[in-house]
Amino acid sequence: MGRLRRSLHRRAVRVTRAAYLAIERSPLAPALTVPVIQRLKARVTHMPASRVLGVLDRLAAADVPVWVAGGWGVDALAGHQTRRHYDLDLLTGDDPGQLARAGDVLRRAGFRQAGRQHHPGLPMPWRHTWQDDEGHTVEVLPVTLADPPFGEHRFTTGVIDGRPVPCLPVALQLTLHTGYPVRSADATDIRVLRSCLERADRAGRA
User: Fold this and answer.
1) 142 and 149 in contact (C-beta within 8 Å)?
2) Distance CA 163, CA 79 (A)
3) In the prediction, which pLDDT does 152 show?
4) pLDDT under 50 in the chain at which residues?
5) How many CA atoms are closer than 13 Å to the CA of 119, on its beta-carbon side?
6) Can you list the alpha helix ranges (DSSP code H) found in the chain?
7) Neighbours of 36 (CB within 10 A)
8) What's the pLDDT at 121?
9) pLDDT confidence of residue 5
10) What is the layout of strands, in order, in the sheet containing 137-143?
């Protein structure tokens, strides 16, 4: 029964991804921003904690330093999962050799490069997208670690599924959650980050 369920899930992922890409390239593309479509996409192709930890283990074994950012990074700071995540955002240095090693690791883990985007003016202007056949997505975000806002913060450790993982600190996450239109998922992340700050403040006064 488990094998049948996994087979059906893979088939649903393939059909959903093909339909999504077809719509994305058509005049109907604006419909993809509808919240119900985004929820359906995340439900079918969400990135589970087990896959996140598997990717992090492979990168650590290859001596590729990364820090969990985005939604999974927020939940790492919270110490538990607060919502489903469509992808895994990984911040890394912008050294070309390091970026190439990360790509090699992801290929061996079953991912293929699905695109590269450049958004000048953003703190993380480059976004390298990798996807596997299960619909899991990894976004590799190379930055100059010594430049602001990254050089102004000490990176930290969070927890995913009971295991410590390298991640961005709360203050930096809050900085990165500004400067663009806030989606419902972003609003949830910001609430979680503020709760983390309040928890740290209470602990500091205790």
Assistant:
1) no
2) 9
3) 94
4) none
5) 10
6) 2-24, 35-45, 49-61, 70-78, 96-108, 170-176, 184-205
7) 7
8) 87
9) 72
10) 112-118, 126-131, 137-143, 87-93, 67-69, 163-167, 156-160
Classify strands 137-143 and 87-93 as parallel, antiparallel or unpaired. parallel
* pTM summary value: 0.81
The owner of tokens 């703190």 is 123
AA letter at 161: D
Please state the domain extents for the chain. Answer: 1-45, 46-205
Question: What is the bridge-based pairing of β-strands 126-131 and 156-160?
Answer: unpaired
For domain 46-205, say whether CATH 3.30.70.20 is its number. Answer: no
Q: Which two tokens stand for residue 51?
A: 């896959």
What are 23-72's pLDDT values in tens digits? 766 777 777 677 776 666 656 668 899 999 999 999 999 999 999 999 99
pLDDT at 38: 66
User: φ, ψ for residue 60 (rounded to 5)?
Assistant: -65, -40
